[in-house]
């Protein structure tokens, strides 16, 4: 009698790399299902690539006065009868190429946005960990400060911090110092969301068994907070950071539009819109229209990514 050996199908091997695990995750599957999210991601990557490659793509360095010619001022876009090459989107009152100014302005707007989010996230996460882990007086002080700040709009906080810092440092600041002041003021405007979110997550996590085991073996509080608790609360933080990136870019543009942001010699998208607004009713619409469209598309694409990420990381929607 012959023994019949039935082969048992083997389970598929688990991906060994983090990238392979990501491609097999629900997040990637959700991303592929949403055409709108894919379009938003493409636009965001396109803007980032354009900002990084501004030195190669731009036909002119708008920050170099030696490359500006007043004879080329207020030229219309290239498709207009009076347009001239290589000024595709026309020029402003200084003879600055609008397309080049947008590319270099993207650099500044994105730099302020990313640095502002990094600063606010670092501050908010740290304060949230302290408030949630230690509780008591530490928690009460941090949360009361957060409650007071929530009563004011973020733009007013940014204006207040920006004005105070500039009055302390002096009215005339160079472009690098102005950028640092913008990052500082925007960062102080958005830390509350991180702190409150992290605090709530930490208050849940600190009562779990792995935290009790870490305390039992004598690990210090900073190690427990940053090595064990923090990785388990990063999901909501990532969503907040994505959405706050768009808010930080809008806040910087608002400050620049109000005249308290980047100077005209090193303009961001908000500064370009403020400059173009002075010539809108005289017929030079392109000076404000193209930077405005670029800013709107950039913020819209980041917001769409943030909305998708919020839904993709929400276990109740899976």
């Amino acid at each position: 009698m012959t023994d019949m050996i039935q082969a048992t199908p083997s389970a598929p091997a688990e991906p060994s790399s983090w990238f392979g695990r990501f491609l097999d995750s629900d997040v990637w599957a959700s991303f592929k299902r949403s055409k709108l999210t894919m379009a938003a991601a493409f636009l965001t990557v396109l803007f980032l690539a354009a900002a990084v490659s501004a030195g190669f793509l731009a036909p002119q360095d708008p920050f170099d006065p030696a490359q500006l010619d007043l004879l080329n001022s207020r030229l219309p876009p290239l498709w207009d009868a009076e347009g001239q090459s290589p000024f595709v989107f026309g020029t402003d009152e200084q003879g600055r190429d609008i397309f080049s100014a947008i590319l270099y302005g993207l650099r500044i707007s994105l730099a302020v946005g990313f640095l502002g989010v990094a600063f606010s996230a670092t501050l908010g996460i740290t304060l949230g960990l302290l408030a949630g882990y230690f509780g008591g007086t530490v928690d009460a002080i941090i949360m009361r400060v957060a409650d007071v700040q929530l009563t004011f709009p973020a733009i007013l906080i940014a204006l207040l911090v920006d004005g105070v810092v500039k009055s302390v440092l002096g009215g005339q600041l160079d472009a690098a110092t102005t950028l640092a002041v913008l990052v500082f003021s925007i960062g102080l405007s958005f830390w509350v969301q991180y702190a409150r979110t992290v605090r709530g997550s930490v208050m849940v996590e600190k009562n779990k068994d792995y935290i009790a085991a870490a305390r039992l073996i004598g690990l210090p509080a900073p190690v427990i907070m940053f090595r064990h608790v923090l990785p388990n609360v990063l999901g909501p933080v990532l969503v907040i950071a994505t959405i706050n990136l768009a808010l930080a870019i809008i806040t910087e543009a608002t400050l620049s539009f109000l005249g308290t942001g980047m100077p005209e010699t090193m303009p961001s998208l908000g500064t370009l819109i403020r400059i173009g607004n002075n010539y809108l009713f005289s017929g030079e619409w392109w000076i404000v229209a193209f930077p405005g469209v670029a800013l709107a598309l950039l913020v819209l694409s980041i917001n769409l990514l943030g909305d998708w990420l919020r839904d993709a990381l929400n276990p109740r929607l899976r």
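The domain at 33-59+96-317 is CATH 1.10.3720.10 (MetI-like fold). DSSP finds 13 helices and no strands in the chain.
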